[in-house]
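Ops channel
N.P.: pipeline sanity check, posting one input/output pair.
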């Protein structure tokens, strides 16, 4: 389980409003998905730069701040933007914001990302809830310990069942599948995409997995969603652009917002 005092030592100077906030859930909003914050009631925001110990994001679309908010009365901490392994941060550094959020003792961590789809039944513009992952980075945020952490159920089966039920009641198509995390920063080659399919992946991206590993090691329940922003390279013959990824994310954000609102209410309040 998490040890908040030990975690807090890593972040010795936290602005008071954030230090005293006790969110029920923490969320990481990935590329183009920041629009979810608009459906919440904002209480305060704190830039990552104002928290010594947190690395700063340099990617366009990753704003780099925490928002304290409520949604349907549930206190939430939103991480707007993350840092990536491909920016040159270590695996441990990319999970620093998760350790920070865990120090505020939320029960649940919701991770979101933009991903390329590898599964011909999962069209771009849709959402995939992660059932499991492939960590293809050859790195881990736990290097140095704890060792031999059990990973049989990274993505919480009970929360997934709740989100599945909410999606089907709301008539929203929510796929479930395996997310492959690659180091990036370049997109995949068609041969790499064939390999990823053969390995059993349904979507591919460059984030989330270190955060999920770190959060599980700290005892948080984790659920994660991929916004399927594009067909992975070679599927259609078209080239990929970061702009396309961001635009599709923006359009799809409202759908996830609705699912999260109902799912969080049920999973955490009615729980
Ligand atoms: N590949 C890797 N990462 C991504 C992709 C992709 O096709 N789309 C969005 N993030």
């Amino acid at each position: 389980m998490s040890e908040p005092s030990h975690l807090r030592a890593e972040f010795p100077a936290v602005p008071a409003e954030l230090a005293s906030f006790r969110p029920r859930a923490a969320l990481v909003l990935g590329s183009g998905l920041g629009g979810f914050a608009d459906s919440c009631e904002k209480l305060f925001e704190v830039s990552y730069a104002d928290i010594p110990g947190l690395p700063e994001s340099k990617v366009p679309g990753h704003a780099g701040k925490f928002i304290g908010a409520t949604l349907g009365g549930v206190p939430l901490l939103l991480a707007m933007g993350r840092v990536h392994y491909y920016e040159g941060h270590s695996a441990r550094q990319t999970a620093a914001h998760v350790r920070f959020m865990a120090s505020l003792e939320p029960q649940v961590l919701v991770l979101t990302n933009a991903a390329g789809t590898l599964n011909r039944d999962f069209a771009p513009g849709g959402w995939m809830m992660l059932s499991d992952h492939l960590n293809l980075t050859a790195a881990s945020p736990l290097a140095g310990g704890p060792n031999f952490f059990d990973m049989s159920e990274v993505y919480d089966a009970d929360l997934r069942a709740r989100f599945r039920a909410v999606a089907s009641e709301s008539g929203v198509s929510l796929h479930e599948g395996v997310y492959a995390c690659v180091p990036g920063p370049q997109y995949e080659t068609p041969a790499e995409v064939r390999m990823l399919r053969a390995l059993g992946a349904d979507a591919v991206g460059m984030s989330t997995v270190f955060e999920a590993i770190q959060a599980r090691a700290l005892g948080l329940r984790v659920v994660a969603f991929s916004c399927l922003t594009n067909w992975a390279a070679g599927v259609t013959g078209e080239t990929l652009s970061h702009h396309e990824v961001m635009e599709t994310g923006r359009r799809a954000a409202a759908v996830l917002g609705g699912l999260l609102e109902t799912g969080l209410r049920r999973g955490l309040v009615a729980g």
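N.P.: looks fine end to end. The mean pLDDT is 90.
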